[in-house]
Design brief:
Layout lengths: L1 E2 L6 E2 L22 H4 L5 E4 L2 E4 L12 H34 L18 E2 L17 E2 L9 H14 L11 H7 L1 H6 L12 E6 L12 H5 L4 H10 L5 E3 L2 E7 L3 E5 L5 H8 L5 E3 L28 H6 L2 H11 L2 H6 L6 E4 L11 H4 L12 H8 L4 E6 L2 H12 L6 H19 L4 H5 L2 H6 L9 H8 L8 E5 H6 L1 H11 L7 H8 L9 H4 L6 H22 L10
Parallel strand pairs: 10-12, 10-13, 11-12, 13-14
Antiparallel strand pairs: 1-2, 3-4, 5-6, 7-9, 8-9
């Protein structure tokens, strides 16, 4: 018996090996071909008869000769077809198991999504024009509610570890050691004839000196350079000259809008700045207390040079110029009247973002930050006023996701990110205190969505360790949306602002809402009902404590 070592086809005695596709070509010579001459073949023996080592052990009869060529030509195609069918089967099974909507996945998703009607809130910071509940069916056809019990176990574990323990407030000397330069710049007393905290600082430069040459806000951001170009032009006109010396008026904010993000702070800022007695920093959200003073522009980009306190104070120069004009007026000088212009600052990170502490402060206790933002603000401004705007933390988180996610946004993707974040948070609270986890930089950066920002009561209790309750005004976005006139009056009263004319009040309360949800995000629809149920369970104990602290059951968000 003879066999072809290339294609393993049994050659009959009278076969000249012409059918073999791989051994014959147009110039093939049987005498020169080493394969056809039998060279380099390793013989095997079976039943005492010599055989070729790759021979196919099959019995062929003479009448099968006509099939040899067919199998030789078709074998490759048949193998490819079978392989393709196997791959297609795997893909279809994967598609059915995952319920994928946007592609065929070979790895099944660990989380599942339900297909039920949902009752979303259209508000987003923000969507103040439409507050009515509505129902929209999910596009998913596969129910994945079975995820809920397993995630509920995670939430139960987190709930069992919740303890609201009062933090120990650091003393003033400890704060001085941490920020000596800041304490050397900001005085401990302010001008008595100004409602806003201001003081005069000697300016030692000359007419050719650029007072904003080293300001980090101007150096690192092109969009702020126009503001500083204007400040340079008018700087010398606002210096106060006394005994051959030049003085500039420096000011800090009288009040801070400290949080939370995606809770309507932009809308509140835009309305408040329309009041004739209110001014704001040149930049809406300087983020100086929480980030810039540590050299953070974006934490993922690492650290830059730290922004000194002088750079922060420069942002209030426009407002300081107007306050100085009032202070230099005859009404103030001769009649002892007081300046009533106040300055505000609206960085929505101030309430919650203490992520940088671990890189700068030592001596932490069990992973908790020894110093918080409010410790330093209170050290300089014990009489500062704080405004907090909150919303249902479940809807806040979805709005936050839609605003900050860059690609592949969907209700399903949000669900997966929520589940992953809950698992990470659970892992932290098993080993550390609640406060340590809330202020844990590594954890907060690892979680795909910012669950911790919605734990309002944790932050509020820490602010109440240094500020009195009557210095903090807590509002709900839902109330602001339904009765804007009422909430703005609460703010005016809290800040002790003067009365407004009907025209001024109408301008403030009837202007369109600011920073509403983008159309492309609205088209994604609400979160999945299963996701909402999971988040309701997670935030419930925190909302309950918040309602107790504020003596207001509206902060339970049972009906939003």
């Amino acid at each position: 018996m003879r066999y072809c070592i290339n294609c393993c086809i049994h050659l009959l005695p009278n076969d000249l090996h012409r059918q073999c596709f791989r051994c014959r070509g147009p110039d093939h010579n049987n005498q020169k071909c080493p394969v056809c001459r039998g060279e380099n073949k390793i013989p095997l023996y079976a039943d005492s008869k010599q055989m070729k080592w790759l021979a196919v052990l099959e019995v062929r009869t003479d009448h099968c000769e006509s099939w040899n060529g067919f199998f030789c030509l078709r074998k490759g195609k048949l193998c490819s077809l079978m392989f393709g069918l196997i791959i297609m089967t795997l893909v279809m099974v994967s598609y059915i198991l995952t319920g994928a909507k946007h592609g065929l996945l070979l790895i099944p998703s660990p989380f599942h999504y339900g297909a039920f009607a949902s009752n979303p809130s259209l508000m987003d910071n923000e969507s103040l024009s439409d507050m009515k509940d509505y129902y929209q069916p999910s596009k998913m056809n596969i129910s994945y509610v079975k995820d809920y019990p397993s995630i509920k176990l995670i939430i139960d574990t987190i709930t069992s570890k919740i303890e609201f323990i009062t933090r120990q407030r650091p003393d003033l000397e400890e704060l001085r050691k941490q920020e000596p330069h800041m304490f050397s710049v900001i005085p401990n007393k302010f001008l008595p004839n100004s409602k806003n905290p201001c003081w005069y600082e000697e300016y030692r430069g000359n007419t050719t000196t650029d007072p904003y040459a080293t300001n980090s806000y101007a150096l690192y951001s092109k969009r702020f350079r126009i503001i500083f170009d204007y400040l340079r032009k008018v700087f010398w006109n606002h210096l106060y000259h006394y005994k051959d010396k030049h003085y500039r008026l420096r000011c800090l904010p009288h009040f801070y809008i400290i949080g939370q993000p995606k809770c309507g702070t932009t809308d509140l800022y835009d309305r408040l700045r329309l009041h004739p007695d209110v001014r704001f920093s040149a930049i809406k959200e300087p983020h100086w207390w929480t980030r810039k003073r540590f050299g953070i522009i974006r934490l993922r980009d690492g650290f830059h040079d730290r922004y000194p306190v002088e750079d922060y104070l420069d942002l209030f120069d426009l407002a300081a110029h107007q306050i100085q004009s009032v202070l230099q007026s005859d009404a103030v000088k001769e009649h002892g009247k007081r300046n009533n212009i106040i300055i505000g600052e609206a960085s929505a990170s101030t309430m919650w973002d203490n992520n940088a502490w671990i890189f700068f402060y030592d001596n932490s206790t069990e992973g908790e930050p020894p110093f918080l933002i409010q410790d330093f603000i209170h050290a300089f401004q014990p009489n500062a006023k704080l405004i907090i705007m909150l919303r249902d933390p479940v809807e806040r988180l979805y709005s936050d996701y839609l605003y900050f996610a860059s690609a592949n946004k969907s209700a399903e993707d949000f669900h997966e990110k929520v589940a992953e974040s809950l698992q990470l948070f659970e892992g932290c609270v098993l080993d550390f205190s609640l406060r340590a986890c809330v202020y844990n930089n590594t954890l907060n950066n690892a979680m795909p969505v910012r669950l911790q920002v919605g734990l309002y009561v944790v932050y509020l209790l820490d602010w109440l360790t240094v500020f009195n309750k009557d210095q903090i005004l807590v509002l709900r976005l839902e109330d602001h949306a339904s009765n804007m006139r009422y909430t703005m009056h609460m703010v005016f009263q809290f800040l002790d602002l003067g009365p407004l004319s009907e025209k001024q009040e109408a301008l403030i309360t009837k202007s369109p809402a600011s920073n509403t949800r983008r159309p492309e995000d609205r088209s994604l629809g609400p979160m999945l009902p299963t996701t909402k149920a999971i988040l309701r369970d997670f935030y419930r104990p925190f909302n309950t404590k918040l309602a107790q602290v504020l003596f207001d059951d509206a902060f339970l968000w049972k009906r939003t």
